Amino acid sequence: MRTKASDFTMNDQAPRRERQDAVKNRARILEAAQDLFASEGVENVSMNRIAQAAEVGAGTLYRHFGSKSDLCFALMQDQLVQLADQLADLSNAGGDDPQATLETMVLHYLRFKESKRPLFKGMEQAVLCAKCPQQGPVYESLNRPFSRLFERAAGGGALDPAGAVFRADMLLAALVGDSLQLQRASRGLALDELAAKVAAVFYPKG
């Protein structure tokens, strides 16, 4: 029996509708999450509440986003890519003082985190996980500008050439929520002071 063009079109319509519905549901979930996070705070909004606001079932929500961290990441993804590009530009434009360049990069990163604090806190566990299939590439793009700066320093004999990526990992880990909050709230450090101290630790002069 020959397959008619009309049969192919009819058989193809159901998957196409499913894909369109999935795209619409994802957009509704993100819109609902963004509104609720903005009005009530990330920590005060449950996944069930987001599903209700988006008018989708819990199963549909979890098929798209496994956790609130994943939702926060999705809302921040484009901005994180832009941040990584900005850090790369700062790294590439650095002059003869790598520590000063690192300080500028860290301060830029901290100011971004401060301006997006609720969402960044909500998605931090997800984005700082290189094993996660979606978040991993974004984490690597944030790591890369720092590790390349350290690689250039290693080329000049200032740092261990084998430790550039590890050093960048540790730098990003040092700026995660609780650690950062300790330095800001308990130690009383302003962002520029914190950036200077981080740069001095991770790229000591002399």
Short description, anyone?
With 206 residues, the chain is mostly helical. The chain has helices at residues 5-40, 47-54, 58-64, 68-92, 98-115, 117-127, 135-155, 164-174, 177-186, 191-202.
Architecture of the largest domain, CATH level 2? Orthogonal Bundle
Can you tell me the number of structural domains? 2
Number of strands: 0
Summed over residues and divided by their number, the pLDDT gives a mean of 83
Runs with pLDDT <50, length 5+?
Answer: 1-10
CATH superfamily of the largest domain: Tetracycline Repressor, domain 2
Shape descriptor: elongated
H/E element sequence: HHHHHHHHHH
Distance between the termini: 81 Å
Helix-residue proportion: over 70%
Strand content of the residues, in percent? under 5%
Derived from helix and strand composition plus strand pairing, the structural class reads mainly alpha
> Main beta sheet, described?
none
CATH class of the largest domain: Mainly Alpha
Radius of gyration: 22 Å
Q: What name does the CATH topology of the largest domain carry?
A: Tetracycline Repressor, domain 2
What is the count of DSSP helices, taking H or I runs of 4+ residues? 10
Describe this entry's structure for a reader:
There is one protein chain. With 206 residues, the chain is an all-alpha fold. It folds into 2 domains: 17-66, Homeodomain-like (Arc Repressor Mutant, subunit A, Orthogonal Bundle); 68-202, Tetracycline Repressor, domain 2 (Orthogonal Bundle). It contains 10 helices and no strands. The chain has helices at 5-40, 47-54, 58-64, 68-92, 98-115, 117-127, 135-155, 164-174, 177-186, 191-202. Helix 4 runs antiparallel to helix 5 and helix 4 packs parallel to helix 7 (135-155). The longest helix is centred in the N-terminal third of the chain and has 36 residues, at 5-40. The N and C termini lie far apart (81 Å). The model is unreliable at 1-10 (pLDDT under 50).
